[in-house]
Q: What sequence folds into this?
């Protein structure tokens, strides 16, 4: 447990967005908002740590009235929500990514591709056949996958016509893990990242800016991309709806994102 003193035992509360802080309709419940407000009133900071890049995160943070730091793009971006400013950004080496893709395709055949461009207004480009989650998030369909490589990227999304997400992530890690990072962020979302990048690297950068440490931090998540964040934080809480890989390394499993799982834990810690 944390060595922080006071009515709440942590100085930093790190929450994933999808499947964790957000309900399935992309809203945050009043109960969870109140619990987070109580935590910040007790002197802790709340930080959002998401796989979404800034352009897909900004509108949600604005709707929440969130004005602190956010870690976006799987740790690639540290974003100041109050100032709408990108503080740090890490890009994917496109040559290494191309080599990684070639190695994966040599093993499993052609992949379906999408990519997230760098920057505050970076577009998500979607290649032929790539299955996009329908919803409000904007993307740009492209006819030629070569167009993915025309500008700096934070990450590449890969799908396979028949392999499951777990199977694809396993193959990608095995054959290309020395070139790129590989993570699974949700259903149909396997990502290739800059090598060594994770939510933990982004969160540690943001925490340093806030003059906080891993020992001060409680983290909430639901997918394998949250595993490094749990390893970094003092205490990791998986949602009931979490992937088995994350539950296996969690200190605690709470209720689901639909059942105010974050609030359940924060209310208990607030006493």
A:
């Amino acid at each position: 447990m944390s060595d922080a003193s006071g009515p709440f035992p942590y100085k930093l509360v790190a929450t994933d967005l999808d499947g964790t802080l957000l309900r399935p309709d992309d809203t945050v419940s009043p109960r969870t908002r109140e619990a987070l407000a109580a935590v910040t009133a007790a002197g802790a900071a709340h930080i959002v740590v998401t796989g979404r890049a800034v352009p897909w995160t900004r509108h949600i943070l604005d709707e929440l009235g969130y004005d602190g730091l956010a870690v976006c793009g799987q740790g690639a971006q540290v974003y100041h929500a109050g100032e709408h400013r990108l503080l740090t950004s890490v890009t994917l080496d496109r040559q290494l990514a191309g080599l990684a893709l070639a190695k994966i395709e040599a093993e499993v055949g052609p992949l379906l591709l999408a990519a997230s461009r760098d920057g505050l207004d970076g577009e998500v480009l979607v290649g032929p056949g790539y299955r996009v989650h329908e919803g409000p998030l904007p993307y740009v369909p492209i006819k030629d996958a070569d167009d993915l490589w025309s500008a700096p990227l934070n990450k590449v999304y890969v799908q396979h016509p028949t392999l499951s997400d777990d199977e694809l992530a396993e193959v990608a890690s095995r054959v290309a893990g020395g070139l790129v990072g590989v993570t699974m962020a949700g259903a149909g979302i396997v990502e290739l990242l800059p090598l060594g990048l994770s939510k933990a690297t982004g969160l540690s950068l943001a925490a340093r800016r806030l003059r906080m440490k891993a020992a001060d931090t409680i983290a909430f998540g639901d997918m394998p991309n949250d595993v490094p964040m749990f390893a970094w934080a003092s205490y990791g809480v998986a949602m009931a709806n979490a992937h088995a890989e994350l539950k296996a390394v969690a200190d605690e499993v709470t209720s689901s994102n639909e059942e105010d799982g974050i609030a359940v834990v924060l209310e208990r810690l607030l006493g």
About this structure: Residues 13 and 46 are 5 Å apart (CA to CA). The two ends are 16 Å apart (CA to CA).
